[in-house]
Amino acid sequence: MNERALPIVVAGHICLDIIPDIRVQPAVRSEFLVPGKLVDVGPAMLATGGAVSNTGLALHRLGLPVKLMGKVGDDLFGGAIVDLLSRHSPEIADGMIVAKGEQTSYTIVINPPGVDRIFLHCTGTNDTLTAQDFSGLSATGAKIFHFGYPPLMRAMYENDGEGLVRLLAGVKAEGMIASLDMAKPDPASPAGRADWRLILKRALPYVDLFLPSFEEILYMLNPNLYADMMERQGSEDLLPQVTSEILTSISDELLNMGVAIVGIKLGEYGLYVRTSPNPERLRAMNGWASSEETIVSWTGRELVAPCFQVRVAGTTGAGDCTIAGLLASFAQEEPIERALLAAVGVGACNAERADAVSGIRPWDEIQRRIEGGWEQRNVHPNVAAEFSKRSEDGLWER
């Protein structure tokens, strides 16, 4: 780990997950949640969830200097979140925002054997998070600000994203590098009916790294194509229909909106990254790179990094951890090739454990694993037709 790595703030959505240990296996789904029926369950596990927890704790486990800034209430659930975060490091939760008299966001995860999971979710303080809550941002000393899941925070997306724009503009005014992750809103919700193309057009001029998943950004930029692909696929898993043409078209539009680096998460197929062809846009990232060699490495590139082979125990938080690997590389001014391999490497480590972050290993250990010949999965077949494999590192480039 480079001791000069830039300090990072991870902010945005956070909640408390309450997960009862349900051992009974109903014969049919309708037999489980029946009015008046008592269902015997085991102890409940408490865990933190959301971008702040998943990406932030992954960065901490990698060894990066990181502060977490999510909003909780001054209730028992808020205290539980702060306590769980502080167990990782006494200082990591110093920047958490505690709102007097507000209800902390929580999710009850009902996960009986043999039945699809049911989520009971309270948005709570995530809906009231505003730019004003980050008045102490400069005191963190951070150089990179990563914000996650604005579609799940009402004050960020309402009024055509006015709150998100104000927040990101303030981040840039503080001289920080801005990174943004997304979440796919429920189409039937107010967030799902928001004009996300307009919101992004307003917000992305203040964003340096934009890191959505394929399904998220397709839904936001081209909802008609999203609906057509979902109808053809018969599910919301649209990754089998990814093509290099769609990726290039999406990244073209996002780069034209003002971002310097676009990263699109492709789930089991890895990570696609496209960067601005203008080196001045990269130099404008508030003093990020200390060498011209780094700028050249990241200018005008279009790459895909396939995932590494692992025995999958779970994928909760895999995208958030992939982002952590990319941000960790970026904070250390790694060349783009090493950054992409680190990103999918951290994501693969996540998948080796059922929870979101316990599989994440120290940075140097992951680098040794990559350099030791860690086997990669195949690239997406639709991407292979247009990209060329780089034999020296297993990346694909166009």
Automatic annotation (TrEMBL):
Pfam families: PfkB. Residues 35-358 form the Carbohydrate kinase PfkB domain. The keyword S-adenosyl-L-methionine does not apply. This is Sugar/nucleoside kinase (Ribokinase family). PANTHER family: CARBOHYDRATE KINASE PFKB DOMAIN-CONTAINING PROTEIN, HEXOKINASE FAMILY MEMBER. Keywords: Kinase, Transferase. The keyword Transmembrane helix does not apply. InterPro entries: PfkB_Carbo_kinase, PfkB_dom, Ribokinase-like. Belongs to the carbohydrate kinase PfkB family. GO terms for molecular function: kinase activity.
